[in-house]
Fold each of these.
Amino acid sequence: MKLAKVIGTVVATKKSEKLQNLAILMIQPLDKKLQPVGEAIAAVDVVQAGPGEIVYYTLAREAAFALPEPDVPVDAAITGIVDRVQLEDKGINDRQRIFGKNG
Amino acid sequence: MKLARVIGNVVASRKHDCFRGHKILMVQPVDEYGEDSGPSFLSCDTVNAGPGDLVLVQQEGNTARELLGTRQDPFHSVIVGIVDAVAIDREGKKN
């Protein structure tokens, strides 16, 4: 899963019958410091995310499993709304012991 | 699976049911020598890992579903182990 920001909505009246009444949002992927990275993508929303919210999303086949009816043509689904990102980047504990002379 | 180090966690009160009761950790993939390689991403913790732990991360969904939930959960990435040692046969790697 990856972080993203909701930047808009997508309305598609003519769409695959299996995508009917599924909310589709535009999301901008973010890196660990919540900076934009890569291109914006469209994703199905299963957690009622709002504009501007930070979310995390699931890609690939697993995205479809986020939906009540999983046999739908979906490869990206928003599966969580983020309250807080806590970074604690302190390298690798016991790195020397784990990697020996390679570490 | 990938080697990765835990660099933080994500708190999300509103999330898909399958994630309930599981911590979502931020992991930074590393190569066989512990050097960062590739972008960080989020993973569902099943082994109570914490910041600084070197972990084994499963990215493909099927195993995630078997480990954690029902047949139909949208897990994509799961932390499946905390690594104690990595031994690389440098010579073997060359030829």
Amino acid sequence: MQLLWQILVNGVLLGGLYALMALGLVLVWGVLNIVNLAHGALIMLGAYVCYYFFTGLGWDPFAALPVAMSLLFCLGYLIQRWVLNLVIRAPMFNSLLVTFGLEVVITYLAQLLFSADFRTVNPSYAGANFSFFGATVPWVRVLAFGVALALTFALWLFLDHTRIGRAIRATAQNLVAARLYGVNPRQLYALTFGIGAALAGAAGALYGVVSQINPYIGAGLTGKSFAIAIIGGLEKSLYVLVGGLFLGVVEALTALYIGPTYTDVVSFGILVLVLIVRPTGLLGRTA
Amino acid sequence: MKPALKFIFAALVVGGFATVPSWGSAVLVQFGINALILATLAQSWNIIGGYTGYPSFGNSVFYGLGGYGVAIALVQYQLPSAVGLILGVVLAVLFAFLLGLPVLRLRGHYFAIATLGLTEVMTAIVSNLDIAGRNVGLILPLAKGDTLFLELSLALLVVTTLAVAWISRSRFGFGLIAIRENEVAAAVMGVNTTLYKILAFALCAVFSALAGGIHAYWITYLDPGSAFDVSLNVRMIIMAVFGGPGTIFGPALGAFALAAISEILASKITSLASIFFGVVIVVAIIFMPRGVADLAQNFRRFGWRYFQENIKAHRV
Amino acid sequence: MKTRLLCALVTLLLSSKLSAAPIELGASVQLTGQFANTGRYYGDAYQFAVDKINAAGGVKVGNSREKLSLKILDSQSDVNLSVRQYVQLVSQDKINFLLGPFASDFALADSAISEKYNVPMIQGGGASDQIFSRGYKFIFGTLPPATDYFQSTIDLMSQLKPAPTTVALLYADDAFDVSVAEGTRKAVGKTPVKTVLDQRYSSKASDFNSMLSLIKNQNVDAILVAGHETEILNFIRQAKSLNVNPKMYSFTVGVPSADFRAALGSDANYAFGMTSWVPSPALKDEYFVNAEQFANEYKKRFGYEPDYHAASAVADVEAFVKAIESANSLDPVKVRDAIAKLDFDSLYGRIRFNTAGQINLPQTVVQIQKGKLVAIYGPKGLLEKPLYPMPDWGKR
């Protein structure tokens, strides 16, 4: 019983991070209709920004998080403005292939720049933990969970309660509507992708604190993000959070009760099932 | 080019490939096998992706099942490889019917992600199957004689291309194109969309599985990671799109061109090969989104403005 | 378009043929891609050994001394590309002596090429028993058998006080680690130690929280992990954050590598591991004087410390040199027979292949103590006092 409780706690904490990973992907997909295969590579870059600020300048990883977000925002803005904007009205898998090409370029440039060495962001408090009704809870995971929650909430506030946010949401409905807000769509698109990349950067910074990083972690993280995006649906950032928590708990339970070689069977199996049964996500409106 | 000229050119290419073993080096034979298999894969993706408009990421499942059919038949039951090829095709077609039915109801990105998910699920399931050697993989008996593999994969590509040529002028093919252009309208016009889509899916299962079977027997090693490789599926799409999706020769042409580029890169400037390949993809999609076939047709008319027009047509 | 590209391909391939040197060695190594981290040891060490041997005058064949040359291709961590590159090396570049890639699954696939073309391959990157159990004649390996990796650790465990009574075995599902697990299961079975957990996990795993919680719940004394460096880094950090405190844990890879210790900092302490090679001055070598000197020069040249992968790679090159000299011929089949009869001392250890083509070297148990790698237990018994049991994470 105590083991089950511990596993549930692990799963929830992991799920928070998962949700943040998928948040940027969902935003870009939902608004721009771009399935970004380079999303995981952007997460990887965020992790490296955090790593270099931590080891090079001695910054606390949580202090480096806003830096990772800003840098990734700029990169994302440029990618959309000068690459993806050029193909956005082409058939849908053209943009998908372009993001695949970007993923390859980013990954291998990262290897050239950062080397293939495995890195960790290991602050002195990385092992600190506390007991919560008998379960051991690592502080860094709680902090990461808190940041994930805060950013999800912030994104919701931004999209629902600012003029620019409403313009972005209007774009998701239709392109002409965006012009009514008096915003240049080119910039609006770039801004949206930039925010998506910034969220990936934040996820990366937190990922580096709990896991090792190397230039090749991206592809796997993209896959995870897809699963979460599908489970939660593309409608609301809050749903992404639920999707992330769901996947985190399910994976933790699978590893324990079915076996750690079956987590991918279960998580991607759920992805396919949800798509078949409810393409709008578990929580989305029925089509 | 006139259609007759195209076929003459194609016949010359086939003749060229068929005689490679007599004049080319072993490396050229090997390059030939690899390029022919990739071309077959791009061509069969063309049926579901190019003609029907369903961007499948599940074709590497067919490819992998084809490989495992051969591997399991040879290693676990000591059956002849022909039986293995048939076993692989049966597995792949079964998969196409069983999962095609629900998955082909989805459209656009949702279909793409669902098939991507299926590929991941299959990788994970096979990694746990004893009969498939789990994640360790299976080592096939050594097969000497690359000439046989070259002829086999050449024959397969010819058959696949003939099938695509037939599709492009048959009632079935018009049905598929109608589905691509407007599925609802196609249904109104009396096309049995579900049946057509599943048949297209199953058809590309047959060819992809055969390609996978030949490749596994040739490389003599198979593990889930390389059998159900998602990036191989992405390459199929890129090759088809690069050559011209929804055309008869485009995908094969695109496959040959990209296979040659990546082969040269991999044997020369080795460490930058991958980056360069990524750049080629991005640039090609931006400047010639309808592929080489379209470029060849329209470049003479528009000149350099062709590229400009492409960007203008698709940018925001 | 297509024909022009083919022509370019052909000319490029032909042009590379002109610069053929007297004795060419060839390898396809993972210089980029997910295995690049360990793959680089092979690329660098092969080159280093070739340079050193050439500086010493080269290889004696007949009455003349021939220089070695080396052609390395980057397989981008793609097995299929690796296979094709070996075919290119053999049939296009006419290279008759192949050096191996890193990792067992690559060696498994690539050894089919050496067998197909009847050219010898000496590889120092694949230890899985499967590579050598197919009756192939042209594949030789300089890593000791995977099944024996944990043997010395298990021997050590019986001498520890208080000896661990329960053990958890975790292993990744690739060829090498499955072989390790098979051997370890047998070895543990011969001791009174009880295996309470025997768990295979996916090579893609990054989250070990469930397994660690289970281990903590069962209060396991010793944890043996056969996996990849990435997983082991995560495993240790997650063990710390979940406050899992076994008496000892040991890992098949990572512990001997410098970048592993750099990545974990003080959290790497107390981790046990194993190595078939320690850079000791007692290991004499014809070209590098001894293993210690090799390690120093290697670090100076490449900027990182070598581990057993690098030493094993050097031994592969030296084995070719010795075999060519003793066969007094460049005929691949004659050289193959000479390799099978080799028996010489190198900086890596004694090179003598068994009938299957693999060498056997004892695994020395190592432990990270205060950030330094310390040899603990070798074939002659205890070398240094192990830090055991390891202190709780809270008391370090």
Amino acid sequence: MPETPPRGAPPSFPLGRLTAIGAVLATLGAGFAYAGGWLSPGRITPGRIVDALSERGGDPTGHRRNHAKGICFTGRFEASGEGARLSTAPMLAAGRYPVVGRFAIGTGDPVAPDASGRVRSMAIRIAAPDGQEWRTGMNNMPVFPVATLEAFYELTLASRVDPATGTPRDPQAVPRFVAAHPEMRAFLGWAGSAPWTPSYAEEDYHALNAFFFVDAAGARRAVRWAVLGTVPPEPRSPAELQALGPDFLGRDLVARLGQGPLRWRMVAQLAGPDDPVDDPTRAWPAEREQVTLGTLVVEQAQPEASGPCRDVNYDPLVLPAGIEPSRDPILLARSPAYAASYLRRQAELGQVPALARGAGAGR
Amino acid sequence: MSGRGFSPLQRGVHWLMAVLILAMLFIGVAMVASASSYVPLVAIHRPLGLALLLLVVLRIGLRWRRGAPPLPVDLPAWQKAAAHASHLALYALMLAMPLLGWAMLSAAGYPVVVVPGFVLPPILPVSPLLYALLRAAHGWLGYLLFLTVLLHLGAALFHALVRRDGVFSAMVRGR
């Protein structure tokens, strides 16, 4: 050291001690790098999932990376009070709670024609007076295509589109994936046989992932919730839907709400003892007990660009006390993936897109 | 060493926060890069963040009231300056990190759920630009805090093992 050795210091250069200090610091630094994933380049990070979701055609800048095309709505949830015996969630106690929601089609392209959306979704945020919220994103299909994070990522990669041609990068990638993943059969069976409708109002929407309702005594019950439409479906052929133009779903919603509110019955299906709680590809038997939680009333629609849903991340793990997530790996991955997608689009909307990368954000 | 040492309460809060901050930094860096462990980790990150905010307020009050022992008189001037600057940085970052976390969740319109059923009020309006700025600041300043903690630890060990000048024992034994 350059300075005079102080009292008690070793007379010679303390190489061994300095090395020990360096080793402590290097170990901590390496542990930090390991925790942050820099030593695991193959890890499926939220950022990589969102990267893949962003490459399925169209330009998602400033939009959600999945279910990119949608429309906002406002309304209310009228709780029946029947759910209160299953869960202490404040918005399940009989009463009315404000809702900000969004209908969308399952696409990575914010200007995709509505007829291309086989999957349609409803997301809602139900607010309780004490500041707690229940957010949920639900789809019209009754089961999810895959059961694991790895499979979801692989399927998303297989679905990527070449931006130059607008066609799949590898046309055989999805067929190859399907052949290797028998768990997709239930979803594909639905996609191939379910009627196509001309309206968001004519669909049921399912939460797909299971959660636990926790009652006042602490008892936990696995549930899956859904909202069931009250408007009878009037199925059309895909060609008839194409003839309605690219934006028929939004137009139809606005027209229907001009006539009055739309209603869905919100139900919770209770799992049987051996029903799969952590596998969203497998529906529970239809005869399982269903509890009517209340009525979702959709009152007004707003364009997404200026509507109240624009800045809402419908992360399905924003939950009140009394509702807990299952260990379904798809459900648990939705939260960080939605967060990465949310940061990207908010940074783009705020004209600071560079802030969406780095610093652990969307890595 | 001349002057009085750190009080038992000051030492207790220091070592408690040392453990919690290191845990927090590792949890934070791990959770944002993990699609599978994010949910359980964030459930620890938020209550721990609020606990650290309360602890740093207590800590700043203690430091204000009770001060700190003087540095050794033979410590080179640049090391004294570095010691003061790095401690100022540590205090500023310890205070800023939880406030940034709270502020960024507010700007994103999330309910600031500390533990299920316990929600803090928002401290900022919902804004895409504010959220992007605060979220980036929370991440970058987290890295800076980790580096400052490493520097602090390296300097502490240098005092303990190389200089053996009583600076380290002031925080261990209080004298």
